[in-house]
Sequence to fold (218 residues):
Amino acid sequence: MTLKLVIGNKNYSSWSMRPWLALRANNIEFEEIFVPLYTGPEDKQRILDFTPSGKVPALVDGDVTVWDSLAIVEYVAERFPQAGLWPEDRARRAHARSISAEMHSGFSALRNECGMNLHRPIRAITLSADARADVARVQQIWMECRERYGKLGPFLFGSFGAADAMFAPVVHRFRTYAIQVEPEVQVYMESMMALPAFREWTRAGLAETLIVEKFEEA
Fold:
């Protein structure tokens, strides 16, 4: 039975991007169900028909429904162990889970001040001290991973995995808001942006025409 992944607008929905990328980059077959966000009660009800959270993304696997990006990634990792979403080594796996959970629960200033919007013209804005601290912490995470595991491949833990999927929207944020990054961080970002699945999501997001005004303010 084919998985179903319920997502929002590719232009805006950073949470939808994470499990979508984890699936697509690993050639795991799924049916994409797009529900536009913030368009009214009918579309909101469509999401509620899939998940009681009323939010995207949601993954439907037969009679199993999983919601929340990180929970979906964990489910996919268990369901398709051959994809290697988490490192095999216990210590590396613990590291990958730690930074993924930190991404999932933190960086609120960066999220609020640099909302994901692929259509946005590339230009810098003045960031708060909290957002600058978030930027510094993300770079620290990425550089530490690349220093430790760079010999294994171009991504955070060598090959593309769950941690990369969780941080993927930040790559877009750094690019769109012209945030200055360290050379090692730029190299990692370029590896992510060259990933075929990342490019596919980006092309589709740029092709969308639906505008959500509250996301256009930054």
Observations:
- Residues 11 and 209 are 9 Å apart (CA to CA).
- The chain has two domains: 3-83, 90-201.
- The domain at 3-83 is CATH 3.40.30.10 (Glutaredoxin).
